[in-house]
Each structure stands twice: as C-alpha cells, then as structure tokens.
Amino acid sequence: MFEIPLHPLIVHFPIALLLLGSILQILSLWKRDFFDKTALLLLSLGLLSGIAAFLTGDGAERFAREHWGNAYRSLVETHQFYAAATLLLFSIAIVLRLLYFIVPKKIFAVLIPIFCILGSIMLALTGHYGGQMVYVQKHAELLPLLPQ
C-alpha cells in the first residue's frame, strides 16, 4: 500500500473543486453574493489540493520511472508545465478575488472569471497529458513510439 504513489489519488480533488469553483464564479456575475463566496471557498480548497497534487507528482514520476523507464519523460514535462500554469492562473484568480473584497473595482469582477476559464483550460490539458501517461503505462507496447 505504501509503495503506491499518492498523486493519482489526490488529483481528482483539484479537478472537481477548481472546475465547480470556476462555474460558480461565472454564475456569480449574475447572482453575486452566494455564488461568489462559495466560488472563493471552492477555488481556495481546489488550489490547496492542487498544490498537494503537484507536490506528490515527483513520487508518481519516480514510481513510473522504476516500473516503465524514461520513455514517457516528455509527457511528464508537458504535464508538469500545464500543472504549474494551472496553479498560477488559479492563484491569480484568487488574489484578484481577495483584492475585490478590499477594492471593489469592476475590472476585478471581469478578470476573475477570465482567469478561472483560462485556469480550467490549463487544468483540462494537465489532465489530458496525465491521462496519456496512464494510458501509455498500461499499454507498454507503445513506449518505443514515444519521443525520447
């Protein structure tokens, strides 16, 4: 049990929390109070679980390298890039949301959903490349086809 990496178990939390938080943040443009506060809570929890997923990624990488070699390395690097971009975009959205509490300028209300949408796109790409690694690991006959 302890040899199994935590990363595949944790990654589902930021996916669900960040996507639902993004949807609620967009809905808050019309119905401000409830959706806005709930979105901030979900985005914050999603970001924290996303950081945990990012930090456990090295263990998953090590596990995969030991079991399947280095053939998947370019996928790992691409997956890591999109994961970092996801965390950055959602961090910006949360900081803008907190600034909006202090200085309620209309520009923040417009930028927050934009960063949530961009973060959601990066999240989808992160998941796509993570899924590619899982697929390749389960289908080892494809490993020679990957770029080294």
Features:
148 residues, mainly alpha, 5 helices, 0% strand, elongated, transmembrane helix, DUF2231_TM
Please mark out the parts with pLDDT under 50 across 5 or more consecutive residues, or reply none. none
Q: What is the averaged pLDDT score? A: 87
End-to-end gap: 31 Å
Structural class assignment = mainly alpha
Tally of DSSP β-strands: 0
Count of helical regions: 5
Summarize the structure.
The protein is mainly α and 148 residues long. The protein has helices at residues 7-10, 12-27, 32-68, 73-102, 106-138. The chain contains 5 helices and no strands.
Please explain how this structure is put together.
With 148 residues, this protein is mainly alpha-helical. It has one domain. It has five helices and no strands. The chain has helices at residues 7-10, 12-27, 32-68, 73-102, 106-138. Helix 2 runs antiparallel to helix 3, helix 2 runs antiparallel to helix 5 and helix 3 (32-68) runs antiparallel to helix 4. The longest helix has 37 residues, at 32-68. The mean pLDDT is 87.
